[in-house]
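ARCHIVE CARD
Drawer: 12
Card no.: 0347
Subject: one protein chain, sequence and derived structure
Cross-reference: see card 0346
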Amino acid sequence: MSNGHRNKGSITRLYTSNTLKLFIEDIERRPQGQVLDVGPACQENIMLFGSRVTRLYVCDLFFPLMKCLDEKQAISRIWKHLDYSPESFDGILLWDLVNRLDTREVPTLARLCQKILKPGGTVVVVVPGERAVSSMVNNFVIGRDFEIHLRPQARLRLPLRSCQNREMLTMMVPLSPAKSFIYYCGITEFLFRRD
């Protein structure tokens, strides 16, 4: 694992994800496994999950969030995009979203995830620390053996808020923390579960 190694196509190899390995193993054990990717969506991840789960849904909240912020509208408007039936999903992916929200909005997101997750379902939360990446939004592209590569998304302009691990655990209630990994590059990954 080499931090900052540049690959072609302006993708940076960052780390190997333990959390995603656990997440996919859990989803693959479930009959008719369904996953929701809340973005920022990328083709590589869509293809990966599309081949390993029964059904993949993509609901990229990053553009609606940016629009709300640009137009100085209430962020609560974006939650209508997560109006799925209760207990629809076995897993939810939150890439770099939680730290783009005002901390008062994160508990709302956690409650929505709790509602649309099946019992025992899991949520991956990826949080780049301040030293890991700039405030630019990135795609977290999953490569072979769960290597994570970053691809900058210059068209997405969102604030980056730092968040302590304890604060994250508190904000994500009612979901229960299952695992967390802190990587040398400054990224923290959390795996939460609906009990």
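Annotation on reverse: The chain has one domain: 5-193. Residues 10 and 151 are 6 Å apart (CA to CA).
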